[in-house]
Amino acid sequence: MTPEITDPAVLAIAEEIAADPANASFTKRGVGPLFYAGPQCRIMIVGQAPGRVAEETGIVWNDRSGDRLRDWMGIDRDTFYHSGKLAIVPMDFYFPGTGKSGDLPPRKDFAHKWHPRLLALMPNLEMTILVGAYATRRYLHLPSSASLTEVVRGYKQYLPAYFPLVHPSPRNQMWMKKNPWFAADVLPDLKARVANLLA
């Protein structure tokens, strides 16, 4: 399972999210918000939204994209889910459904409504890993026209608070081949920073 939330303040927000009328269709089906946050977290991962597998298993990043993200970060599943130092706070905490070309985007107002309240409960955060276009645009205050490739290429200008990444989806394999600098320069730095913060 996604790590069990034990902090009372975070748990109260999780219950509010589940009770929100905007999430009634999920709550009615017995689907709870998929995220993890706590006062001991040092790193926050902001992705798009849970996928179908995540919803079915109740575990965020429980797919090939998650395996690749963990590889990029240089950590194993146990550290990812059970260290208590990694907050997993997607742009939407529910699977938005499937469209013509993959999963639908996260709901526009979801992060605006809930992220600030969770961030206020995580005073020890030192780095936020922004995975994909939706997270980078929101947290780096970028226009929709911003090139994610160029944002990631210039990642050092957003450090140490933010570390932007492309999505680790297998669909981005071609992107990886076209941009060898990512594996050569960006990922070693990411691994080193993650290791330092989790030490």
From TrEMBL:
Q: Where is the Uracil-DNA glycosylase-like domain?
A: 34-191
Which Pfam families does this one have?
Answer: UDG
Domain of life (superkingdom): Bacteria
Could you tell me which PANTHER family the record lists for this protein? Answer: URACIL-DNA GLYCOSYLASE SUPERFAMILY PROTEIN
Under what name is this protein listed? Uracil DNA glycosylase superfamily
Biological source species: Schaalia odontolytica
